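Example record

One chain of 225 residues, shown exactly as stored in the release files.
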Amino acid sequence: MHGGAVGSAELADFARLDAERYARRGYPEAVYCEGKTPAQVGAIAAAGGGSGVMLFTRASDEHAAAVRQERPDAFHDPDAALLAYPPQPPAPVGGLVVVVAAGTSDLRVAKEAMLTARYLGRSVELVVDVGVAGLHRVLAQLPLLRRARVVVVAAGMDGALPSVVAGLISAPVVALPTSVGYGAAFGGLAPLLSMLNACAPGVAVVNIDNGYGAGHLAAQIAAPS
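Predicted structure tokens for this chain:
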């Protein structure tokens, strides 16, 4: 491992790490890998990110290889395109976060939200394939959903599931639109607009496919009081 071998001067051409973010906000900086070269991501991994967990999101296989060259034991979930270092998440504190994926096709984004919340120190449960095409499936999960401090609902297509869930529980819902769907879903725009127009109160909406943002918001909502 070459952690700490790269100084800030060597990153100055492409990155300035916010090492004080954890002290300032209580949550560390994350590295969004898409648009960065593997060499740049590897240099950031080597430099370290100050206190707290280092998260690398939207990481390709090439990005992951560059991170693990510097942090060989980093956790990597290829499905979620996410890496974390140290590999073990912190001991969970605060309330329970439940992440719901409407369909299997939404699982990639849902797992990004789940892992983000977990590595930010929350206990997380994942519920998969309970979309509105079969309402009995989500109704069967009500005991778990009603134990949650906050529920993240990832859905594409018509984006109806967050409003359904919010009408059944007392906890806030973080609606996570995905780019799953046929042509008129417009790459996630249709579910995004449906979620923004949710009939049930207590629904907050993040951007399309933004599993990291949904997981981070859920972690903050479920933080110890």
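Notes: The mean pLDDT is 90.
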